[in-house]
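>> received
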Amino acid sequence: MTTASPSRGIPETPGRRWPWVQGLPPAVVWVPATAVAIVVALPILYLAVRTAEAGGDLWDLLLRWRTARVLLQSVALAATVTAGATLLAVPLAWLTVRTDLPLRRLWSVLCVLPLVVPSYVAAFLVVVALGPHGMLQKLLERLWGVERLPEVYGFPGAALTLTFLCYPYVLLSVRGMLSRMDPALDEASRNLGAGQWSTFRRVTLPLLRPAIAGGALLVALYTLSDFGAVSILRYETFTWAIYVQYEGALNRGLASAFSLVLIVLALAILVAEGRVRGRAQYHRSASGSARPSQRVSLGRWRWPALAFVASVIGLGLALPLGVLGYWVVQGLLAGQRLGLLWGTTLNSVYVSLAAAAVAVAAAMPIAGLVVRHRGPMSSAVEMATYTGFALPGVVVALAMVYFGINFLTPLYQTLFILVFAYVMLFLPSGVNALRASLLQVNPRLEEAARGLGRSPLRVMLTVTVPLLRPGILAGAAMVFLLTMKELPATLILSPIGFSTLATSIWATASEALFARAALLSLVLIAVTAVPLVWVLRRSEG
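>> returned
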């Protein structure tokens, strides 16, 4: 069995691999990685305890046709959103990285910004703007007498909303790999007579496989765990059923069992992603310095490509910002006072920075174990790490309440527990970014440092970590913006008197103060966009 190195196309036999990679992983890698995996798997223990308390009627409830229907609806939504996000992200990544698209640098930033829009905000805006009696229908009624638009509720609305919110997960991963890919491979293909499309299909696309798989994994897991969009757009999924059971206290055992089903589904997705990703190496193994690739001329396809990019940004970013801005203006014209909550904004930034720092530190040994030491241990650690991303925030929050009251009483109702929950929820984002970067770092650099007598810890700190800086920044930015948007866990675990932008938006919207909620939403989007834009500019530089 051989694995191909795409940077040279030369097979590498297992015997040629590096001895310290083949053997038992260094303690500096597997000890912290295993510890993190055990800690983030605590919600699974909580769910198992709650499910065991449910009694013998649980299986009858789980095996009902209604439960199977909700499961199929959840799978259908996750599959549709993942496919749609991939179909949008891959062309966008190629257009903004490899072509002479007009205003390419501007589009490369704007294409990613839909990621900062909270799903509950986006879904509400979809209903207000595109609903049967929404803003668009009123405009069309004045112009052409249109009395009613098609329903946006249910599967179409949920799938459309989540697709345009989630495609940046795939886009960021694919763009990062495209920008660091050796251009000699494409040039060799074209020199052999292959056209641009054939080169992309046969050379570039296979090399993007781990990036596409990693981004698609996050999209699928995020879709399974989302509650805001599916609840507002009235599409029943497992997450919605879990929230209904927990909120009404109808059957906590059934809600826990539903959550375990979600975990099983997430593990199945992880296995599928691992098979798609494969075991090939994606680092450069040839000598010489890296160089940027030449821009592909779009020719007569330039303006259709520009229209495609602008349409995606218009639906994913311009529409939400336009509706929010409209509400703010209407509130100001009506004389409403829309003062900013500076303390709330600082709270959001502070706790999000703390979560980002802890999550990236925890993700580093996991990424090293998964990429450099493949085997049963790394697979188990990876699966345990990613399960939290598939769970609704309320499940992780209630698990932290359970452990806080029973075992961590001094830490209960503190920021420590809140940050801990954030790390459980969003650690996979950091792992995915670091894994993508580590796949393109040549292990011979680490081997050389080990050959000079450095310990595994010093090799990690002085060689691996500096090379992973782009991945570290990207992972930290991703965790930061996800933490800024998180609502259920923040509502349940925040210390008394501690509010964030997400909880303030929810409170003001619940009181029908839509202009103030719109202003806070714009502040949330602006604050979360800053680190993301900074990371994008750094990566392009």
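>> DSSP finds 26 helices and two strands in the chain.
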